[in-house]
Amino acid sequence: MGNENIDARRKRALFRSSHRGMQETDLLLGAFARRHLEELSEEQVQRFEALLEEIDNDLFDWITGKKTVPAALDHDVMKLLQDFRKTLLNI
User: Fold this and answer.
1) CB distance 19 to 28 below 8 Å
2) Structural domains present in the chain
3) Residue 52, pLDDT above cutoff 90
4) Of 91, 15, 30, whose CA–CA distance to 60 is shortest?
5) SS3 string of 65-78?
6) Computed over its alpha carbons, how large is the radius of gyration of the chain?
7) Which of 34, 45, 52, 69 could disulfide-link to 62, CB 3.0 to 4.6 Å?
8) pLDDT for position 84
9) pTM (two decimals)
10) Where does residue 89 rank: exposed (0-12), middle (13-18), buried (19+ CB within 10 A)?
11) C-alpha distance from residue 47 to each of 31, 72, 74, 91 (Å)
12) What is the pLDDT of residue 86?
């Protein structure tokens, strides 16, 4: 990604968030991206892009707390996703 414009990366991440294959993940990640992507730092965008490389089922299970998040992915962006999911469900 190197020198690629952060706005182009955000735009691509937004698209990828809503077009993953598993409807539940599409809805959750898409809503999160629409709400938070513009306010994420470049480093956070990079961490979000890395999460988008993960398998839908695993990612959904980590966000929903069904599975323990691997240490390498247990960072601020994952916590934002988990908190966002809770606010969607009002829990």
Assistant:
1) no
2) 6-89 (1.10.150.250)
3) yes
4) 30
5) CCCCCCHHHCCHHH
6) 12
7) 69
8) 96
9) 0.90
10) exposed
11) 17, 10, 10, 25
12) 92
Residues in the chain: 91
Residue pair 38/6 in contact (Cβ under 8 Å)? The answer is: no
Residue for token pair 């994420």: 40
Q: Which residues contact 68 (CB under 8 A, 6 or more apart)?
A: 62
Distance between CA atoms of residues 21 and 76, nearest Å: 25
pLDDT score, position 91: 54
Contacts of 52 (CB under 8 A, 6+ apart): 13, 16, 17, 20, 29
Average pLDDT (68-73) is 97
